[in-house]
Design brief:
Layout: E1 2-8, H1 22-28, H2 31-37, E2 41-44, H3 68-87, E3 91-96, H4 102-116, E4 120-125, H5 146-150, H6 156-159, E5 173-178, H7 183-192, E6 195-198, H8 199-205, H9 207-221, E7 224-230, H10 252-265, E8 268-274, H11 285-297
Parallel strand pairs: 1-2, 1-3, 3-8, 4-5, 4-7, 5-6, 7-8
Helix pairs in contact: 1-11, 3-4, 8-9, 9-10, 10-11
Length: 303
């Protein structure tokens, strides 16, 4: 398979600097070498994305959607690249950056699959819902609004990024690992009809049972699956290099198992890994975990 690595060093969407260096950290952790060792052809977007460092960018006039102009511009560029890769049938692997880059990734995938008539599903592995709007957000950080906008809720400029309308049907979105939701976004997620498996669900039913349900969900809802993996879904005791750590997260083994089983489903055609912050990391361990997770999606097995 041809795998295209798209490095998106964008950290306008969050409150803590450093995730713009996440793609470099993942690259230095041996991503390309690992993917090539699995027999895939790797292509790197060497021209990159021209993004001004956050401290030099204009936050804009809307405190409920900080850096709106800069995020829309950057994610529009990303959408164009993702669409081009997806149109060829190759695998786009997007490295963030904060989770606001999902706006661009999903816009590109949505545009591509509209042409082919395929129904897109999204596995969103995250401690957070990212389903706020400007009305419900307490911070104005767009990384917490990206999934609501991609599903058709929120500011028009985010909802209509790259092309008009939602990028994914909320009924085709499945969350795993949720453990920190704002009241307003929780209400909107219920109204939208997304499927959510929280950490409590995992504790109650066991992770193997949750994975079975996730696989059935995608088999019955979608034609193709995109995985959006936020490293803060992992417990911060093992993945310290992330900007919004929440105690009580997934174990490394659980995350690897989820990726391996999703790979066996045969439906995953794209992935993004976000919120690696090397400033907060220890020995680049979180970035190394990101490499291992990508490898499992791309076919690596223990035996």
């Amino acid at each position: 398979m041809n795998v295209h690595i798209l490095e998106m060093p964008l950290d306008y969407g969050g409150r803590r600097h450093g995730s713009d260096m996440g793609p470099s950290a993942i690259r230095l952790a041996g991503l390309r070498e690992k993917i090539e060792s699995l027999g895939h052809n790797v292509f790197v977007n060497k021209k990159g994305f021209n993004i001004v460092a956050q401290e030099y960018a204009d936050a804009g006039s809307n405190p409920k959607a900080k850096y709106l102009d800069a995020i829309v511009d950057a994610c529009t560029d990303l959408a164009r690249e993702v669409e081009a890769v997806s149109d060829t049938g190759d695998f786009p692997l997007v490295l963030g950056g904060d989770h606001s880059i999902a706006l661009g990734t999903l816009a590109g995938l949505g545009a591509s699959y509209k042409k082919s008539g395929k129904k897109l599903g999204v596995l969103y592995v995250d401690a957070h819902g990212d389903f706020n709007t400007a009305e419900t957000s307490s911070t104005g950080n767009i990384h917490g609004e990206c999934m609501a906008a991609s599903a058709g809720y929120g500011l028009e400029r985010l909802v209509n990024l790259y092309y008009e309308g939602r990028k994914v049907d909320p009924k085709n979105i499945c969350y795993v690992g949720i453990r920190d939701l704002d009241p307003g976004e929780k209400k909107l997620m219920h109204e939208a009809g997304v499927t959510v498996f929280t950490i409590s669900d995992i504790d109650r039913m066991g992770f193997s049972e949750i994975i079975k349900k996730v696989k059935v969900f995608f088999k019955t809802h979608c034609d193709t699956v995109h995985i959006s993996f936020d490293m803060d879904s992992l417990d911060p005791s093992i993945a310290p290099g992330t900007g919004v750590p929440v105690p009580g997260g997934l174990s490394y083994r659980e995350a690897l198992l989820l990726m391996e089983d999703m790979s066996s489903l045969g439906m995953v055609r794209s992935m993004e890994i976000v919120e690696v912050n090397p400033i907060l990391d220890v020995r680049n361990d979180t970035a190394a975990m990101a490499v291992a997770l990508a490898a499992r999606i791309l076919g690596e097995k223990l035996f």
